[in-house]
Design brief:
Helix 5 packs across helix 6. The strands form two sheets. A ten-stranded mixed β-sheet has the order 1-2-3-4-7-8-9-10-11-12, covered by helices on one side. A two-stranded antiparallel ribbon has the order 5-6. It contains twelve helices and twelve strands. The protein is elongated and about 70 Å long. The longest helix has 13 residues. It has 357 residues and is of the alpha/beta class. Bound molecules: S-adenosyl-L-homocysteine. S-adenosyl-L-homocysteine (SAH) binds next to strand 8 and strand 10.
């Protein structure tokens, strides 16, 4: 991936976290230390495949190299998670970062899959009206090492017969607003020198940062989800204010031109809000907008936020809306709310401890 090459120009700074580095960068460090390039793979195998937390355990490296690495670099330590368990098997992980900031990840088991919902920023600047994370504003971007820590923390919480099958960047933050670090994270997740995860199992969800969407799909083979939520600019301006910069026609035109792989489609997420965006006329407009694209629609029950007048559409309204989409030959699925009893559902992350605070 491009991230590897772009970053090569800059020397890796002293103190850098090896969990943030690509193979090219580690090989460069090793070369600077006067050792052979193949050590790079050895080191990253220790870190990503064997979970090494220090250079000391890398017994197959020369002692002098180990000492050099230890003196000059770090390996991000695994973060401990506070775990809440839902009666439906969903687990919410609250992770404390080194500077005291907190982010959340959610493990969502269904019959056939175990999905990990990952965060990409501490907070978010996108200001969507219906989202809890929006209320905290953007605190900062997460590093790649921090994003990846969610995977190691989640793996520690799995039962013996569970394995994460899908990774979705649908937790806190707008992943495409943290683009260089996101692409670096994806490179480490999908490379054979990293975690070896198939990119088909990874989905990046965006509110619709058009230039970055185009870059993402030209630079990585992951799946894309676009949070749409409205079929008119007037309403989308209100629900997702980024629409003022990239209005519906610009967003959908970009989606039409995106280099989507042969068998895959863009997922359009649509949060169902009673009396706001759930009328039959909305459904018919949605058919018109999505029909010309390689897209499918995922209808999401709105999870209420404290002090918000917004309400979720009823199940009957969601099903009627879905029926119109299906009549218009769209693939439309309904996302059931999971982990509601532990406030781990879509858009609820971070809400609880801060409304309590
Ligand atoms: N910023 C990215 C990813 C994080 S949001 C994006 O906008 O896609 C992930 C999904 O959760 C989005 O589709 C978002 O619309 C949805 N979501 C946010 N708040 C929600 C809420 N209160 N109820 C249901 N879904 C919500």
């Amino acid at each position: 991936m491009d991230a590897n090459r772009q970053t090569l120009a800059e020397p890796t700074p002293a103190g850098a976290d090896f969990r943030d580095l690509t193979l090219d960068e580690v090989e460069q460090v090793v070369a600077n230390a006067g050792d052979r390039a193949y050590r790079g793979r050895q080191i990253l195998h220790w870190i990503h495949a064997r979970g090494a937390e220090s250079f000391d355990v890398m017994r197959d490296l020369p002692a002098s190299l180990r000492a050099y690495l230890k003196q000059n670099f770090t390996i991000g330590h695994p973060m401990s998670a506070i775990v809440s368990r839902s009666s439906d098997g969903t687990r919410r992980l609250l992770l404390r970062l080194d500077d005291g900031e907190e982010i959340e990840s959610v493990i969502i088991p269904t019959e056939k899959r175990v999905t990990l919902c990952m965060s990409s920023q501490v907070g978010c600047a996108m200001a969507c009206e219906f989202c809890a994370t929006a209320r905290m504003g953007l605190h900062r971007n997460m590093t790649s090492s921090e994003m990846l820590s969610q995977i190691s923390a989640a793996r520690r919480e799995l039962t013996a017969d569970e394995e994460i099958t899908n990774y979705v960047f649908m937790g806190m933050g707008e992943p495409l607003a943290n683009y260089p670090r996101l692409v670096r994270t994806l490179a480490i997740m999908t490379s054979e020198w990293g975690m070896g995860i198939s990119p088909r199992r990874i989905t990046v969800s965006t509110v619709g940062l058009v230039p970055m969407m185009e870059r993402l799909l030209s630079e990585t083979p992951v799946n894309l989800a676009v949070s749409l939520h409205a079929t008119t600019n007037e309403l989308r301006d209100r629900l997702a204010p980024i629409n003022k910069r990239y209005p519906l026609e610009v967003l959908l035109d970009a989606c039409r031109r995106l280099p989507i792989k042969r068998r895959s489609r863009i997922t359009f997420e649509y949060v169902m809000l009673a009396g706001v965006n759930d009328s039959p006329a909305d459904a018919r407009r949605l058919v018109k907008l999505i029909a010309p694209l390689r897209g499918k629609v995922n209808l999401i029950f709105f999870n209420p936020l404290p002090d918000s007048p917004l309400r979720s559409s009823s199940r009957a309204a969601v099903e009627a809306f879905q029926a119109i989409l299906k009549n218009g030959s769209l693939t439309a699925t309904i996302r059931e709310s999971r982990g509601l009893d532990i406030a781990a559902a879509c858009g609820q992350l971070y809400a609880e401890q801060h409304s309590a605070a």
